[in-house]
Structures are given as structure tokens and as C-alpha cells.
Amino acid sequence: MGMIGHFIAYDETTLEQLITAQIQLESLQPWEHVEVDIDKTWHAIHFTLTNCLGNGAAPLGYVVPLLNHQQLPLESYGAFYVTSAQTKEIAVTLQSFNDIQLREHYNMSALVNNNIYPLFAEEDAEDFFAYMVEHFMALRTFIIQTAQQQKGYVFYVC
User: Fold this and answer.
1) Entry's InterPro entries (predicted)?
2) Would you say 110 and 53 are in contact if contact means Cβ atoms under 8 Å apart?
3) Minimal CB count within 10 Å: which of 56, 73, 111, 152?
4) Residues 6+ apart with CB under 8 A from 93
């Protein structure tokens, strides 16, 4: 197994209840409602878009939100949220962002040198990019659809 990245869309009311700890994420059983699974590419996508191990500037820092100030408690790794307003901001950017733009940000050496999960030095750069872009495009679709529904989302790893 491994550390798999999962995304779930929530309406703003539910997100606000999570943020203010009126409800706990575990009570919503997020593992039963995963809308997109980006497998083990979550850290590589985040680093490729932001050139940061965690956090990262908006709007690309919200795509895979490893944001210290937007964290929710959840088991061992925690979870991170993105509001509906932030989701709209990301969606505008992602409308024209495709595999070509992702390729422009992609730097296999930087990923390996920064110990980005799940990479190792012998990984084939082209094979990994193909694996990553497949999951990025699924995530892109999810974010655009979530914005159209006027929702935000939660990201967690398990």
C-alpha cells in the first residue's frame, strides 16, 4: 500500500462546520465518499506546481493543499481544506492549464533531490510524468466541476 491522496467536495456549510470543529471529518466517513483519488502523485503534483515541499502560493498552492493554516484533524496525516471561493480561483487558473503547462513546471531532478514522495533516484522521468499527468488531469476535472457546483473540497492522505 502507500500514502494515497483523496479529494472530496463539500458544500460551504459543511466546510464551515469542519473548520470551526462543530463536526469532525471522521464523522462524515470521508473514506466512503472519495470523489477523486490521485494515488501516490499528490506530493509530486504539489511540488511540481509550487516548487515547495508544503504550503505554496495561491492559486496553484491550493490544488493539492498542503497548507498549515488550512489543516483539519484526521488520524495520522491530517486533512486540508479549500473553500469554495478558493476553489473558484483555482478553477479559473486550471481552465487553461493542461499537460503542456505541467510539463513546463516538471523537473524530475528537483523532485528526487527534494525527496518528493514516492520517487526514488532510479525512477524513469517520462514514465513518472505520464503517471503524474494522468492523475493531475483527473484532479483538474474534479476541481473545475467542484467550482461549478459552488463547493470547496477536502484533501487527505491515507
Assistant:
1) DUF1877 (IPR015068), YfbM-like_sf (IPR035944)
2) no
3) 73
4) 59, 60
